[in-house]
């Protein structure tokens, strides 16, 4: 048995190897003893495993695989159930051992027998659970099937599908209420007056229409006009919030600091990210959920006025800027799933950085003078393009900026943008927030409410700073929507 265990496992079964060994022994005995009957037996023992091996590769069983994730996409640290349905589509019979290939972060790959004991209609169904603490897109599968010939002598293994992509979105944390909208109110509702009469004296009244309630009759205006007049109706409009998300590589890493890979090469395409950027992603998701629950329409831009998810490989619509309702929030979550740091110039649709080394992401090519040259080659942040986008939605709601390391000069460029929103909030996330006092001062002089925080501070605590001037606490846990309390 010890010798059989050392033999290749994907050619013959132990029975097949045993038959080949017996055939070789019979052949040697026939040669020594000169027995023709032993020669015939040895040929039979040697040829039968080889014929079965050739047959199983020429006549392969065919399978169809259906894979479903529930929920899909799934938030970080939340479980998703994977349901597999496998059926045989070609001729053949017999049993097979199957295995679902998983990225290493999900642990050991599940294995199962085909057909299952509960198979119905030729279809076997299986179920298992996955959970990821990191956001991203992961290929689940393919399913590999290992089957034998009818005699159980030879083995063959093959992938029977291409696998499917599981999208893991960042989980939003619960944010405290703040004075977000100024005159618009915290509930996301704005009352606007519709002018029916051009007269300045009657801007709040209009003529009576059939069906108007009598309690709305404006008797003074009725006496002046000699016709029944009613108080002007109020209509409810949906406020809009604009979120500026910084995802520049220099803003979230220093020239000498390596950026950690969000995914290993074995898990799938590597992502360029860092601790500060992961904090910014969670903040953007949390703010979007917080505003969406209060009926805000959302608009997400980057620091150059382009759509925030233009370079996110997981974005359903990369060129979209405006989102509303539950479907819009879901689209934001999916877009944030695989967003990563991008170089100021030479950006790729799949999010790859120029001259990036996927393993480890030390990215020496983006440090030093090459990093500075790359910054100079791209359009400047917070320029007229961004200002034009903001002015097009002037005073329609709050303006929120989630930023990385920005310079005082960039802060001065961004400062006037506060005038385009009913309120303006800026969060600067950096490892050493004390270094950004000049940046905060420049933003505050322009009308922003600005704070600088390290990534160790929970997003909810940073958000709460906009309504209170106390020192930031640093608790170890955050309450996440739909995922309970996680570290």
From TrEMBL:
- TM region(s), chain numbering: 12-32, 38-59
What does the record list as coiled-coil region(s)? none
One family name in Pfam for this protein: DUF58
Q: Keyword Signal: yes or no?
A: no
Region annotated Disordered, chain positions? 344-381
Q: Which residues form the DUF58 domain?
A: 205-246
Signal sequence annotation: none
InterPro entries reported in the protein's UniProt record: DUF58
Q: Does the keyword Transmembrane apply?
A: yes
Q: Which UniProt keywords apply?
A: Membrane, Transmembrane, Transmembrane helix
Q: Which PANTHER family match?
A: SLR1927 PROTEIN (PTHR34351:SF1), SLR1927 PROTEIN-RELATED (PTHR34351)
What name appears for this protein in its UniProt entry? DUF58 domain-containing protein
- Source organism per UniProt: Arthrobacter nitrophenolicus
């Amino acid at each position: 048995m010890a010798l059989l265990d050392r033999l290749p496992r994907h050619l013959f079964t132990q029975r097949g190897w045993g038959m080949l060994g017996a055939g070789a022994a019979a052949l040697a005995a026939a040669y020594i003893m000169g027995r023709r009957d032993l020669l015939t037996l040895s040929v039979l023992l040697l040829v039968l495993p080889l014929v079965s091996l050739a047959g199983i590769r020429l006549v392969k069983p065919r399978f169809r695989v259906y894979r479903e994730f529930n929920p899909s996409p799934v938030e970080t640290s939340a479980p998703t159930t994977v349901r597999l349905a496998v059926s045989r589509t070609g001729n053949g019979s017999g049993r097979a051992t199957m295995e679902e290939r998983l990225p290493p972060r999900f642990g050991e790959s599940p294995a199962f027998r085909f057909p299952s004991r509960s198979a119905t209609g030729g279809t076997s169904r299986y179920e298992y659970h996955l959970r990821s603490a990191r956001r991203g897109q992961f290929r689940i599968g393919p399913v590999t099937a290992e089957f034998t010939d009818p005699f159980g002598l030879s083995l063959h293994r093959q992938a029977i599908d291409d696998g499917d992509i599981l999208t893991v979105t960042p989980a939003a944390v619960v944010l405290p209420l703040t004075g977000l909208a100024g005159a618009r109110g915290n509930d996301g509702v704005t009352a606007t007056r519709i002018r029916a009469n051009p007269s300045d004296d009657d801007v709040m009244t209009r003529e009576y229409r059939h069906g108007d309630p009598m309690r709305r009759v404006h008797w003074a205006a009725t006496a002046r006009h000699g016709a029944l007049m009613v108080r002007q109706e109020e209509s409810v409009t949906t406020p809009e919030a604009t979120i500026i998300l910084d995802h520049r590589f220099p803003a979230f890493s220093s020239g000498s600091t390596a950026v950690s890979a969000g995914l290993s090469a074995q898990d799938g395409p590597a992502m360029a990210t860092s601790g500060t950027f992961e904090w910014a992603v969670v903040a953007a998701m949390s703010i979007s959920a917080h505003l969406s629950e209060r009926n805000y329409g959302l608009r997400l831009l980057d620091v150059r006025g382009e759509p925030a998810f233009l370079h996110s490989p997981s974005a359903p619509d990369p060129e979209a800027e405006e989102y509303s309702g539950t479907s819009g929030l879901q689209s934001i979550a999916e877009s944030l799933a695989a967003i990563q740091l991008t170089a100021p110039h030479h950006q790729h649709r799949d999010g790859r950085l120029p001259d990036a080394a996927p393993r480890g992401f030390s990215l020496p090519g983006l440090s030093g003078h090459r990093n500075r040259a790359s910054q100079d080659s791209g359009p400047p942040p917070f320029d007229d393009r961004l200002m034009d986008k903001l002015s097009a939605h002037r005073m329609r709601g709050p303006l929120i900026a989630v930023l990385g390391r920005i310079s005082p000069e960039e802060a001065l460029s961004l400062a006037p943008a506060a005038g385009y929103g009913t309120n303006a909030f800026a969060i600067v996330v950096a490892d050493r927030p004390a270094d950004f006092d000049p940046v905060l001062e420049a933003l505050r002089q322009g009308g922003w409410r600005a704070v600088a925080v390290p990534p160790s501070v929970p997003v909810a605590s940073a958000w709460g700073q906009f309504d209170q001037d106390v020192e930031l606490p640093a608790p170890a846990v955050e309450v996440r929507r739909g995922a309970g309390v996680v570290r």
